[in-house]
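Progress narrative, work stream C.
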Amino acid sequence: MLVHLPSELVDKVARSNEVQKKHSINQAHRGREGFWWAIFGITTTVAIVSLVGAFPMSDPKSKALSSFKVIQRTPLSTSPTSIRAKSQVIQPMNIVASLPERLIIPSIGIDVNVGVLGLQSNGQVMVPENTQSIGWYSGGVTPGQEGSAVMLGHVDSYQGPGIFFNLKSLVPGATIEVVLADGYVANFAVTRVEQFAKEFFPDQLIYGSNGVRGLQLVTCGGTFNHTTGSYESNIVVFSTLIQPTN
C-alpha cells in the first residue's frame, strides 16, 4: 500500500538526511585525520627514542658500560706461513705416517739427513753407525703425530765432536724442524733439557706416548767413564709440536 506524505514532511526529511550525510562525512574525515595524526605521533616517538639511544646517557649505568674496553680482532696476515700458524692453533693438522728425512736445528747449526734405527737383539735401541749421523727410532711415531718420536745421535768420539755435541746447549723455545718424506715439515719448540743416569734411564718418559706430540733427542753426556769407555749419563732434549707446514 502506498502512503502519500505531505510535501512539507518530505522536504523536512530530505533536509534531515542531508544534514546527517554531511555529519557522517565530517566524522569520517575527522576519523581519518585522527588516524594519520596517531601514526605521525607513533613515528615521532620511535624516532625520538632511537635518537636518545644513539647518544650516551648521563646516568651512572651508562657511564659504567662505557668504561669497558672494546677488544678488536686484528686481521690475519695474508702470508701462507702466518695462515698455517693460525689454523694450526685452532685445529692441529693430522700428520700421517711418513719417514723423517732431515733434521734441522738452526741455533746449533744442525742440518742433517736422518736414518732409521730399530732394536738390537738384546732389546735395546740401535745407535747410529757414525758420530755424524742421526737415527730415528722406527718403533715410535712419525714426528708430529701424537706420541713420542725419538732421534739419537753421538756426542763425540776419539776423533772429535759428534753431531749432537752441542745438544745440551739448547734452551727452551729453540726451534727444531723435521722434514718428512711426504713434504711436510714438523716444527717443534724445545721445552726442557734434562740429564739422566743411564742406569735409571726413564724409558717410558722418553719412548712412551704421554698424550703430546713430542720429539725427544737423545745423546750421551755427564761423566766419562774411562774404564767402560762411555759416558755414564744421557742428555735428553724434550720438544713439542708447534706447527706442521708444507
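Work stream C, second folded protein:
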Amino acid sequence: MQKAAERAGKKLEEMNVDSLFSKQEREKWRDEAFNEIKQEIERSDKHYHVVSTTCIFYYADWSKEEGLNQQLFHIIEPNIVIAFIDDLIEMKKRLLNSERWNRIFTESGGPPLNFLAKWREDSVNFLHDLSIECQYRKDPIKRKEEGFVTDFYIFARQHSKETLTSLIYEMNEKLKLYLSYPISEGREELSKVEEFRDKLSENYIVFDPFTIKDWNIVNSYDSLKENQNSMKIGDVELPRKEVEDALSSIRTQVVGRDFAIIDSVDAVVVYHHTKEPSAGVMAEIIYARHNRKPVFGYYPFPRPSPFLEYFMRMGQIRTMYRNEEELIREINHWKEYLRTKTI
C-alpha cells in the first residue's frame, strides 16, 4: 500500500493512515497492492507463497474497515488460510508500545480488553466465512472444480516456529493433532503436558490450546478481593471494570476457538494427567466424537470414568492408554486412516 500511495504522490504511514487519507484512497491503494502481489506470484517459480495481511482493522470508535474482502480473496486464490491470533494481554502490550495507539487511548491505559476481544473474534469469523465461501470442491453434476481454499486453521502466535513451518510445508505428510488437557493445575503438572507435547511434535503437527492464555485473566479476576480495583498480569495493570467488561467474551471465545481448532485437525489426543475429571476436556472429547474425529487418550490412573472409556474408542477398539509410549505407537499405527480436510 505504501508503494501504491507513493505513486500517487502521498506518504502513507501508521500515524496518518486514517487521519490524512479517505477510505476510498486507502481501498484504492489496498486493491493495487493485492494486484501487484498476484502479478509477483504469477511471475515466480516458487512453489509456496505467503501473503500476510490484516483482514479487519478496528478504529477507536469501534468502527471497522476491511483489509480483505471476497474480491481480493479471489485475486490471490489462497489454498491454505491461517488466522493468526494472540493473547489479549499480548495484543494490549503491543498496542501500548505503538505511538499511534498510545495517542488514541492516552487517558485510558491502552485499548480495552473487550475491544481487543471483539477485534480478534470478528477477524477469525470473517476469515473462516470467506474460506467456506471459497472452499474447493468438485461438482459431479457440472463436472468441474470450484473454489480454491482447501484448509483453514486458527494458529496462536505462541506456538513454536517449527510448528508453523510444519503446518505450511508438511501438512500433507504429518498428522495434525489437537492436544486436550486440564489447564487449571499447577506449573509442575503443566510442565508434564509440555514435555508430552514436545514429544508428540517430533512426528506430528500439534495444536496446543493453552498457547492462548486468556484464561489467566479469568483466574486472576476470580482471585481478586472485594476492595481491589485493579489487577496485574505480568507487567500490565488492568482496572477491575475493564476485566469485568471482557469476561463474558473471553469465556465464550475459549470454547468456540477450541472447538474450531478441533474441526481443523485429524484427531484429538487427551493427556489427562489428573485423576479428577475435567469438564473442559470432557466437552472437547464429546465434540470431537460428535464431529467424527478420533480421540486417543492418556489416563495413568486405575478405573477411569465410564464416560471417558465410552468416548475413547474406534468402533470396538479402545483408544485410552496408561502409558505414553503405547499411546504414541497407536496414533502412529492409525495415522494413514485419520487424515481429514479442515473445512
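The CA atoms of residues 174 and 203 lie 7 Å apart. No further action is required on this item.
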